[in-house]
Design a protein that fits this description.
Layout: H1 5-23, E1 31-35, E2 38-41, H2 42-58, E3 63-66, E4 70-71, E5 77-85, H3 87-91, E6 98-105, E7 108-116, E8 121-126, E9 131-133, E10 136-138, E11 150-153, H4 167-176, E12 179-181, H5 186-194, E13 200-204, H6 208-220, E14 224-226, E15 238-242, H7 247-250
Parallel strand pairs: 3-5, 11-12, 11-13
Antiparallel strand pairs: 1-2, 3-4, 5-6, 6-7, 7-8, 8-9, 9-10, 13-15, 14-15
Helix pairs in contact: 1-2, 5-6
């Protein structure tokens, strides 16, 4: 592994402290819209700027792709960063949002970390070395029956301007499962699958920075990561992440 996971955790936790300073003063937070349905705050920009500076300082050979600042040179080996995944939740004072950092080498995600500062939960994985939450090894759930499963999803600001807005799919899955949740952060949803707190997650029309770190964490915890047809891989347009045991039952509903 060409990086120090301890150093990266230190920098991500420092970025989390920056985010929490803004989170403690939401009445003064500057919020704007990148699109009619996509918020950005000054906290997003500050956290991404900090991580970009620190990652480039420690690892200048890697490029950078951040949600707010876009792509730098050398995208064949790059950090993929979402400074605050779940900005809407963040802006409302809810706790379920996180910082997502992944390292992608020649199209292969080799490191991922997702930190939820308001919960103080730090998830991390290196390819081939398992997945961890707060330095404890984690694994996906053992649930085998979809009827007993808890499933989470998101709507990625889709709503009425897309013909496939996930509502029909959600209704099919809701009828087939015991519990449904919509937390508002794809990065953390993936970590919940990895940690066995939910049994599967699906969403569509995402970006790689939303899911790169969480997908690796889920895989390293024993989960499956596919598209809606069951093809393995990280597909932001269609991602279905399960504990592997309910995958075949979910695919027909996708």
């Amino acid at each position: 592994m060409p990086i120090s996971t301890e150093l990266i955790e230190k920098e991500i936790r420092e970025a989390g402290a920056i985010a929490m300073d803004y989170f403690a003063n939401l009445d003064d937070l500057e919020i704007s819209k990148k699109s009619p349905r996509d918020l950005v705050t000054e906290a997003d920009v500050a956290v991404e700027s900090f991580l970009h500076k620190k990652l480039q300082l420690h690892y200048p050979r890697f490029g950078f792709w951040g949600e707010e600042s876009g792509q730098s040179e050398n995208q064949s080996q790059r950090w993929v960063v979402d400074p605050i995944d779940g900005t809407h939740s963040f802006s409302k004072g809810q706790y379920f949002w996180g910082i997502s950092v992944a390292l992608e080498i020649e199209g292969d995600i080799v490191f991922g970390a997702v930190y939820a500062p308001a919960l103080d939960d730090y998830y991390m994985a290196q390819k081939g070395q398992g997945a961890w939450k707060n330095n404890q090894l984690i694994n996906v759930s053992s649930e085998e029956n979809l009827a007993n499963a808890m499933i989470t999803t998101g709507f990625a600001c889709l709503r009425d301007y897309r013909e496939d807005n996930n509502l029909d799919r959600f209704c099919r899955v809701a009828r087939a499962t015991t519990g449904q949740r919509r937390f508002g952060s794809a990065a953390l949803d993936l970590c919940l699958v990895a940690d066995g707190q939910v049994d599967a997650f699906w969403e569509q029309a995402l970006n790689l920075y939303d899911i790169a770190a969480g997908a690796l964490i889920a895989q390293e915890a024993g989960g499956s990561v596919t598209d809606f047809n069951g093809h393995p891989g990280v597909f932001p347009e269609q991602i279905l992440v399960t504990n592997n045991k309910v995958l075949d039952q979910l695919l027909p509903l996708m």
